[in-house]
Design goal:
About 30% of the residues lie in helices and about 25% in strands. The protein has about 170 residues and is an alpha+beta fold. The protein has one domain: Peptide deformylase (Peptide Deformylase, Alpha-Beta Complex). The two termini are about 20 Å apart. Bound molecules: nickel (II) ion.
Length: about 170
């Protein structure tokens, strides 16, 4: 497989609640592999499986400290609040400030089926929260004010009309 096409808003798969991975198979491993290749090819720092059209609870990220994949991630604790600018490969060219917890405790499963628990803050915490949102069908445009959302939707409409959206 290799590099996959990233689905852009308003693709339906981005709005679904992704299903739990019941058992980790060779298929899960190649999905993670393809997602990592895709994330690097698109120069993203995180990617969730629904973004490549697979409605499963799998995320990958790399904020410059190496590739991490998490299966069935679950945020157990959230602390503090921070406003910071974010983008999303499924909303190309759109940047907006999003409020998120500053520190989180997240658990998940790795490709060997081992339980993993990460306590992270700052950018890493932000990326994980962003990707877990994707697994619940939530996008950054859902996390801004109504006015800001209208502006963003207007911009997207224009780009779509011009055929410049999601190439
Ligand atoms: Ni995203």
């Amino acid at each position: 497989m290799g590099i996959l096409k990233v689905k852009v808003y308003p693709a339906e798969v981005l709005r679904e609640r992704a299903g739990e991975v019941k058992n980790i198979s060779g298929e899960t491993k190649s999905l993670v592999d393809d997602m990592a290749q895709t994330m690097y090819a698109y120069e993203g720092i995180g990617l969730a499986a629904p973004q490549v059209g697979i409605s499963q609870r799998v995320i990958v990220f790399d904020v410059g400290e190496g590739l991490v994949s998490l299966i069935n991630p679950l945020i157990l604790e959230e602390d503090g609040q921070e406003l910071y600018e974010e983008g999303c490969l499924s909303l190309p060219g759109i940047m907006t400030e999003v409020k998120r917890a500053r520190r989180i405790l997240v658990k998940g499963v790795d490709l060997d089926g081992g339980e993993k628990e990460l306590e992270v803050e700052g950018l890493l915490a932000r990326v994980i929260q962003h990707e877990v949102d994707h697994l619940n069908g939530v996008l950054i445009i859902d996390k801004v004010s109504t006015i800001r959302r209208r502006l963003m939707e207007g911009k997207i409409r224009k780009l779509r009309k011009r055929g410049e959206w999601g190439r």
